[in-house]
Every structure is written in C-alpha cells, then in structure tokens.
Design a protein that fits this description.
Glutaredoxin, five-stranded mixed β-sheet, Thioredoxin-like_sf, 87 residues
C-alpha cells in the first residue's frame, strides 16, 4: 500500500470517556469516506462489538476524534489504549 501508513500510539484517552465500554471498539468514521465505510463493514461482517461515531460536518464529535487522533483522519479505530488510524 503505497503512501499509506498506520500509526499505533497510546494517546491520553481517559478524557474520551467512551473508550472500551465492556471491551467494545470505538470506530470514528465519515459516511462520505469510502475507507471509513470499508472499516465499518469489516467490523459488521466479523460481528465485532463496537460503537460507531460519525464525524460529520457539524463537528459534533470532532473534539473526541482530536483526542484519539491528532491527525483528525478517519477511519480511526480505538481499542483501549491502542489507536489505529491512517495518515
């Protein structure tokens, strides 16, 4: 995959509040993003427990995304202290 890098780092996620509800993943997406929809479908097809947060133009969940991912890119998958995103 040329030009794509995955970054896994432990940001301070305690202020997110929604992370790891009973072992659930947290997926930040934009429904307009093809890669976001692919990540969403993967989690659905594999029947993984996750909470979905749609980061839309209103910026309602932008602060939560900024806490998890300083690059503010989607999709962004949070699993406890592990964050995976594309930049």
């Amino acid at each position: 995959m040329s030009g794509r890098r995955a970054s896994i780092q432990p940001p301070d996620l305690k202020s997110l509040g929604q992370v790891a509800h009973g072992g659930r993943l947290l997926l930040f997406i934009s429904k307009k993003s093809a890669t976001s929809r692919l990540a969403w479908l993967y989690l659905l097809q594999n029947k993984l427990n996750f909470d979905l947060i749609n980061v839309d133009e209103s910026g309602e969940h932008l602060r939560q995304l900024q806490l998890a991912n300083p690059h503010e890119t989607v999709p962004c998958l949070v699993d406890g202290d592990t964050v995976v995103y594309e930049w």
